[in-house]
Amino acid sequence: MTQTIDAAVAAQGLTLPAIPRPRGAFLPWSRLGNQLFLAGQICERDGEVLYPGKVGAEFDLETGKLAAQACALNLLASLSDAVEGDMSRVVRCVRMNGFVNVAPGFHDVPLVINGASELFIALFGEHGRHARTAIGVATLPGNAAVEVESIFEIRD
C-alpha cells in the first residue's frame, strides 16, 4: 500500500491541515511538466495567523522554527492535493524560499527556515533536501512571522 502524505505527517506527530484559502488572486499550486510550484504559505490555520509578529521581538528562534513548520504543513497540504495524496508520486523537493518577518538586528533567518526544511527531510529523507533561500523582511501577509514556498519534482 502506498503511504499518503497525511499518514506520513501523522507519523511525525503532526496533522495535515486543509489547504489555506489564498489571500489573493492565485492558486495554491501550479504544475509545469513534472515541476510542481507551491505558492507561498504563511503560518496560519483556518484563516487565523498562528504566529503574528516579528521573530526577534515577539518570538524567539525556536518559536520562529515552529512558525516555519506550520508553513511547511500548509505546503504539504497543497502538495497532497496535487498528487492526490500519493507520496510515491513525489520525486524530491527541488527548492524552498523562506521569508521571515524580522525585528531589526535579527540575523538567524536561515535557522528559522530550518523548521520547514527539517520537516521535509524527515518526511522525504534525502529527497527532502533542497536548494534554499532564506530572507528577512519587514512584513508579511497578515503580519505572519514566516512564509515559505517550494518547488517539487513529481511523477504521473
TrEMBL record:
Instruction: Identify the domain of life.
Output: Bacteria
- Signal sequence interval, chain numbering: none
Q: Which residues form the Endoribonuclease L-PSP/chorismate mutase-like domain?
A: 9-146
What SUPFAM superfamilies does the record point to? YjgF-like
Source taxonomy: Bacteria, Pseudomonadati, Pseudomonadota, Gammaproteobacteria, Oceanospirillales
Checking InterPro entries in the record gives: Endoribo_LPSP/chorism_mut-like (IPR013813), RutC-like_sf (IPR035959)
Question: Per the UniProt entry, what species is this protein from, by scientific name?
Answer: Vreelandella nigrificans
Q: Please name the CDD domains in this protein's record.
A: YjgF_YER057c_UK114_like_1
| Name under which the protein is recorded | Endoribonuclease L-PSP/chorismate mutase-like domain-containing protein
